[in-house]
Write a structure and sequence with these properties.
By secondary structure, the protein is mainly α. Helices cover 64% and strands 5% of the residues. The protein has three domains: 287 residues, no CATH class; 97 residues, no CATH class; 71 residues. It contains 25 helices and seven strands. A hairpin with a 2-residue loop joins strand 6 and strand 7.
Length: 519
C-alpha cells in the first residue's frame, strides 16, 4: 500500500495533461477533413503507389519517379497504409506520431534544464500553437524531419555542456533527419553550433564535434545507404534533380511561385505561434538578459539561424520555419514564467478571435476586389459554411479569452496559458479546419469517387490535385483536354474547352465530359 501511495505521489500529472491534450488534438481529428492539395495529396499518393508497385527504393507519383524528398516519409506513409488502410487517418498518422514524440522530447529537455513548470508550459505552447496544430498532423515531411532535427539540436547542446556521449545520438538523429529531407538536416545544426561556439569561445570543441570520426560513421551508416542505392538505380538524374534542382536551385530561386521578401517569416511566426505570440514583446524586452543565460543564448541563436537561413532562401513556405519553433517555445516558456501582467500575452489571442468572428461578414465586400476568378468563386461558395453555428462558437471562444482580462491573476499563474491553449485547439480542430476542408477538398474527393466509376483515365488540366489520384486509385493525364476526355478542372477554365457535359460540380471544381464540336 505504501509503494502504491508513493507511486501516485510521484506521478507526473503534467505529462498526463499534455498527453490527453495531444492525443485529442492529434489523433481524434485525423479524418475530420479530406487530404489537402498539393502536399498532403502528393505524399499520400506516393505512399499508395509505393505500396502498390512494391518499389521501396524510389518514390513514384502518378507513375513517374519523384526526387523532391528522400525516402523516409514515403516509407512511413507506405507502412501506415499497410496496417491502417488507404484513408486520411493512415495518411496523417505518421505525422501525428512524430508530433507527439516531438512534444514529449521538448517537455523532457526543458524539464531537465529549466524545471517541470517551464517544461510543461513549453510543451503546452508548442502543441497548441496554430501552425503546429495544423501542420503537426498533416501528411507532409516536416513533422518527421523536425522531430529528428530537434532531438539532434538538444543532444548537441548537451554535448557542448560536456556530456560527450550525446554526440553519437546527435549523429544518429541527424542521419534520420537527412533521410527525411536532405542537406537542411546538416546545415541547421552546423550553423547553430558554430555561432554558439563562437560566442562561447569554444571553437576547438566545435571542431572536435564536427570531425569526430565515430559520429561521422554513425551518421553515414544511417543516412548514406539509401542515397547510394538510389544513385545506383537512377544515376545522375537523381543527383541533378534532388541535390541540384530541389536543394540548391530551390534555395537560390523561387519555385512554383513560392516567394517572398526577407520579412516573409515575421508574420508567419506571429500567426503561427498564436495564441502565444504575445510573449514576443516581453521576449524582445528581455533580450539582453536572456543572452546571459546559457540555454537561452543557445535558443536565441537557434531561432535566429533558422530565421536568417530561410529568410534568405528564394523559395519560401510557411512550414520551413518550423525548425525554429522548439527553441522559440522554450524562450516563450521561460519568459511566461516571469510575467507579472498578462494583458500583453492575452491581447493577440483575443483580437485574432474577434477578427474571426466578423471576418466572414466582409466576404461580399471583398469579392469584387478579387481578380482571380477561381479564388472569387471559392470565396463565394464558402459563405454558406459560416452560419449561426460558426458565429456563436467563435464568439463564445473569444468571450472566454476576453473574460481573462477582468480576472485577478497572480504572477506566473498557469491558468491563462491553459485556457487560451484549449480555446485555440477547439477553434482550429473543430471550427476552422473541418470547414476549410469541406470548402476546398470535399469537391475533389467527391469528384474522385464519381470518376472512379468510369473506365477511362481522367485528364487533369488547369491545376494539380494529387489527392484526386489517391481517392480514385488511378493515374491521370496532365495535358490539354481533347474531345471525348473525362476532364477535372476549375469552373473558370470551362470557357476554354468548347462544348462539354457536366458530370459533377461543387465549389468551382468540375468533372466534365468534353464533347466534339458537332455534339
Amino acid at each position: 500500500m505504501k509503494s502504491l501511495r508513493s507511486c501516485f505521489i510521484n506521478f507526473d500529472y503534467r505529462i498526463a495533461i499534455l498527453l490527453c491534450i495531444a492525443l485529442l488534438s492529434l489523433f481524434s481529428v485525423l479524418k475530420s477533413a479530406p487530404l489537402f492539395d498539393e502536399d498532403e495529396g502528393f505524399y499520400a499518393e506516393a505512399g499508395r503507389e509505393m505500396l502498390a508497385n512494391g518499389n521501396y527504393l524510389t518514390a513514384y507519383m502518378n507513375g513517374s519517379p519523384q526526387y523532391d524528398k528522400p525516402i523516409l516519409v514515403y516509407w512511413a506513409e507506405c507502412l501506415s497504409f499497410r496496417f491502417l488502410g488507404l484513408n486520411e487517418f493512415a495518411a496523417r498518422f505518421p505525422s501525428a506520431v512524430a508530433t507527439l514524440l516531438w512534444m514529449l522530447a521538448i517537455y523532457r529537455f526543458t524539464r531537465r534544464h529549466l524545471g517541470p513548470f517551464t517544461g510543461f508550459l513549453t510543451a503546452l505552447f508548442f502543441i497548441s500553437a496554430i501552425q503546429i496544430t495544423i501542420t503537426g498532423k498533416a501528411a507532409i515531411v516536416d513533422p518527421v524531419l523536425d522531430l529528428f532535427l530537434t532531438l539532434c539540436m538538444f543532444d548537441l547542446y548537451d554535448y557542448l555542456q560536456q556530456k560527450k556521449h550525446r554526440i553519437y545520438t546527435a549523429a544518429l538523429y541527424a542521419g534520420l533527419a537527412f533521410l527525411a529531407k536532405g542537406p537542411v538536416a546538416i546545415a541547421i545544426p552546423l550553423g547553430v553550433t558554430l555561432c554558439y561556439c563562437l560566442m562561447q569561445r569554444q571553437m576547438r570543441q566545435w571542431l572536435r564535434m564536427v570531425f569526430n570520426p565515430w559520429a561521422i560513421l554513425v551518421f553515414a551508416l544511417v543516412a548514406l545507404p539509401w542515397y547510394l542505392l538510389e544513385y545506383q538505380a537512377q544515376g545522375m538524374v537523381f543527383i541533378q534533380n534532388f541535390f541540384l534542382k530541389n536543394n540548391l536551385e530551390r534555395y537560390s530561386h523561387s519555385f512554383e511561385g513560392h516567394s517572398g521578401s526577407v520579412f516573409y517569416y515575421l508574420p508567419v511566426i506571429i500567426i503561427g505561434t498564436l495564441p502565444h505570440c504575445g510573449l514576443l514583446i516581453p521576449l524582445i524586452r528581455k533580450f539582453r538578459n536572456l543572452l546571459k543565460d546559457d540555454l537561452m543564448r543557445y535558443c536565441l541563436i537557434w531561432t535566429g539561424v533558422v530565421l536568417v537561413l530561410f529568410s534568405l532562401a528564394g523559395t519560401k513556405l510557411p512550414h520551413y520555419i518550423l525548425g525554429a519553433f522548439p527553441a522559440l517555445f522554450i524562450l516563450y516558456g521561460y519568459v511566461y514564467e516571469k510575467l507579472e501582467r498578462f494583458r500583453t500575452y492575452l491581447i493577440p489571442a483575443a483580437v485574432f478571435l474577434w477578427i474571426l468572428v466578423v471576418a466572414p461578414l466582409g466576404i461580399p465586400w471583398v469579392l469584387p476586389l478579387v481578380r482571380d476568378r477561381f479564388a472569387a468563386c471559392m470565396m463565394a461558395s464558402g459563405e454558406s459554411l459560416f452560419g449561426s453555428g460558426y458565429y456563436l462558437t467563435v464568439a463564445i471562444l473569444a468571450g472566454i479569452v476576453t473574460l481573462l482580462f477582468f480576472l485577478r491573476i497572480s504572477s506566473g499563474s498557469i491558468k491563462p496559458a491553459i485556457v487560451v491553449s484549449i480555446v485555440y485547439l477547439i477553434l482550429i480542430n473543430t471550427v476552422l479546419m473541418p470547414r476549410v476542408g469541406e470548402l476546398m477538398q470535399s469537391p475533389v474527393k467527391e469528384a474522385a469517387q464519381v470518376a472512379a466509376g468510369f473506365p477511362d483515365k481522367v485528364v487533369m488540366w488547369g491545376h494539380s490535385l494529387p489527392s484526386f489520384m489517391f481517392y480514385t486509385r488511378k493515374f491521370v493525364q496532365m495535358r490539354h483536354p481533347s474531345p471525348g476526355d473525362l476532364l477535372l478542372t476549375k469552373e473558370s477554365k470551362l470557357s476554354e474547352i468548347g462544348p462539354y457535359k457536366i458530370i459533377y460540380e461543387k465549389n468551382c471544381i468540375v468533372l466534365v465530359r468534353v464533347l466534339g464540336q458537332n455534339s
